[in-house]
């Protein structure tokens, strides 16, 4: 990758990126509330489930499809992957969170860049023709910045895990060293799910984490909560 | 890809020969077709065709709703065997109301080669309603089962579709000993895809009891309440309130594209998951049809 592409990927992977990561916990808040996650080991096991069962078989498959479609300038194919990802994301809060972060990244990038593909996709999101999920926006943005698809997938996993670790630090008494240790120990999982996602088809995404869905449903109705999901 | 493999995960199995009756031979490729139409008397089963292992003994006047009709699918066999390919099509005409279930659990037998598959196509006409609530699927040790279900809704149509999986003969201590289970449920409407859900379990390769997957639970079920013309946020809240009162760990969430609500339930026994989902079904049916759900009793 060129220096510009590498720097772009650093920028997109940084928790400094203003996409509202600090507002989402993807059900983690409820797992902690329910005493299902009480320490670093429990957190790592749950994050591993998220990567293997949700991010890998759904988000990354959609990201790959969006990346390939954006490279070809095929807006219809981007939207197809986008709609498909929403259709397989059954937890309502997760769809909302993914669309909110996607919307923020999309408006940020359309301000920064002058790219026809990005503008045309943003128009479709504005007119509600397509949901604008974060993973799909990220696929488009990375493709247009010449970030290779494998790096884009790894970036997505890294961003997801650091986002949830940030949430965990506010919900659990999790130290910085523990957070870094989890991030470090999940590296092989991230590599594995990125590898496996290469075989996934947009028409056959199979995310499967029913207990996450049930706790997300409880979170939707929780009276006191810090996070939007 | 082998011609017979509908999913890449099953490609290897499809190349294995079946030593008993071959794939596609009589008794292996059961077909069931049911068509319900609205008539002056209410709902009538106007077409039915069943080959082994499916059997139909007419309809039952069993529904609390007088204009509804009921069919219980029977099987003269001990369950689903390796090499079985089942094909079920159920069509509910405009304004008709039908309830289709099975008489007892679907037992997927142990396998040494190949796999078994069931393809179910449901379609509901304008203003019609279908309850497709079969008894649970029990996965015996070493079984490989692929289940694909699609439900298509015309404008104004509603449906309740339920799926419960029991990962073994629990009473004899068998759990998560099957090889592969993939169940896909796909909903479509006049504008195309509404939602898709997949349950993919390969206990040997990936721990089904991992946190966030099934956790400490064994039995898992989902009821889809499909009602694209209804306020799904309100229905979701109401169904969630109903199921959190019950024994299983359950929750309701609004489906994508305004399709309706998904209710997921996890438990230790089939009965608790079924009774929780039945409570959701009962509430949904009262909302949609102004009549309670039929009782689950079949004997």
TrEMBL record, chain A:
Record field: transmembrane: none
This protein's name: Urease accessory protein UreF
InterPro entries reported for this sequence: UreF, UreF_sf
GO molecular function per UniProt: nickel cation binding
PANTHER family on file: UREASE ACCESSORY PROTEIN F
Keyword flag Chaperone: yes
Keywords: Chaperone, Nickel insertion
TrEMBL record, chain B:
Domain of life: Archaea
Compartmental location: Cytoplasm
One cellular component term from this protein's GO annotations in UniProt: cytoplasm
Record-linked InterPro entries: UreD
Keyword Ribosomal protein on entry: no
The entry's keywords: Chaperone, Cytoplasm, Nickel insertion
Gene Ontology MF, one: nickel cation binding
Subcellular location, principal: cytoplasm
Record text on subunit structure and interactions: UreD, UreF and UreG form a complex that acts as a GTP-hydrolysis-dependent molecular chaperone, activating the urease apoprotein by helping to assemble the nickel containing metallocenter of UreC. The UreE protein probably delivers the nickel.
Stored PANTHER family: UREASE ACCESSORY PROTEIN D
Summary of the function given for this chain in its UniProt record: Required for maturation of urease via the functional incorporation of the urease nickel metallocenter.
Family membership noted in the UniProt record: Belongs to the UreD family.
Protein name (record): Urease accessory protein UreD
Organism: Haloarcula sebkhae
């Amino acid at each position: 990758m060129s220096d510009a592409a590498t720097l772009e990927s650093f920028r997109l992977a940084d928790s400094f990126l203003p996409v509202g990561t600090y507002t989402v916990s993807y059900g983690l808040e409820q797992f902690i509330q329910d005493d299902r996650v009480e320490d670093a080991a429990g957190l790592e096991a749950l994050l591993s489930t998220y990567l293997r069962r949700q991010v890998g078989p759904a988000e990354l498959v959609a990201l790959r499809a969006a990346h390939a479609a954006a490279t070809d300038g095929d807006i219809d194919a981007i939207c197809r992957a986008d709609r498909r990802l929403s259709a397989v994301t059954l937890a309502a809060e997760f769809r909302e969170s993914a669309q909110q972060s996607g919307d923020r990244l999309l408006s940020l990038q359309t301000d920064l860049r002058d790219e026809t593909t990005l503008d045309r996709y943003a128009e479709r999101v504005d007119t509600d023709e397509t949901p604008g999920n974060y993973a799909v926006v990220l696929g488009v943005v990375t493709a247009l910045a010449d970030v290779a698809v494998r790096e884009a997938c790894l970036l997505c996993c890294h961003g997801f895990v650091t986002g949830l670790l940030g949430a965990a630090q506010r919900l659990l008494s999790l130290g910085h060293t523990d957070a870094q240790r989890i991030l470090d120990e999940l590296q092989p999982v991230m590599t594995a799910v990125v590898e496996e996602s290469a075989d996934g088809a947009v028409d056959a995404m199979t995310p499967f984490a029913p207990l996450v869905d049930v706790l997300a449903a409880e979170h939707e109705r929780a009276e006191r909560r810090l996070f939007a999901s | 890809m082998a011609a017979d493999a509908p999913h890449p995960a099953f490609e290897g199995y499809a190349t294995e020969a079946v030593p008993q009756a071959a794939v596609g031979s009589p008794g292996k490729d059961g077909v069931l077709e049911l068509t319900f139409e609205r008539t002056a008397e209410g709902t009538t089963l106007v077409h039915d065709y069943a080959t082994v292992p499916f059997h139909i003994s007419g309809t039952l006047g069993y529904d609390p709703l007088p204009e509804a009709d009921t069919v219980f699918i029977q099987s003269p066999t001990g369950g689903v065997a390796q090499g079985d390919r089942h094909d079920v099509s159920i069509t509910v005409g405009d304004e008709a109301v039908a309830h289709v279930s099975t008489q007892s659990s679907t037992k997927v037998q142990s396998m040494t080669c190949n796999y078994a598959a069931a393809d179910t196509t449901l379609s509901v006409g304008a203003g019609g309603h279908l309850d497709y609530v079969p008894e649970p699927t029990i996965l015996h040790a070493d079984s490989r089962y692929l289940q694909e279900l699609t439900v298509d809704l015309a404008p104004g149509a509603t449906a309740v579709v339920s799926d419960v999986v029991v990962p073994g003969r629990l009473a004899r201590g068998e759990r998560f000993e099957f090889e592969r289970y993939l169940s896909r449920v796909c909903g479509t409407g006049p504008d195309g895809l509404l939602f898709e859900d997949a349950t993919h379990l390969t206990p040997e390769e990936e721990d089904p009891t991992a946190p966030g997957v099934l956790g400490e639970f064994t039995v898992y079920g989902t009821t889809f309440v499909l009602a694209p013309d209804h306020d799904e946020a309100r229905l979701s809240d109401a169904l969630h309130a109903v199921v959190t009162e019950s024994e299983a760990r359950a929750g309701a969430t609004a489906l994508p594209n305004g399709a309706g609500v998904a209710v997921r339930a996890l438990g230790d026994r089939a009965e608790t998951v079924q009774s929780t989902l039945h409570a959701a079904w009962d509430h949904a049916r009262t909302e949609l049809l102004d009549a309670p759900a039929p009782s689950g009793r079949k004997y």
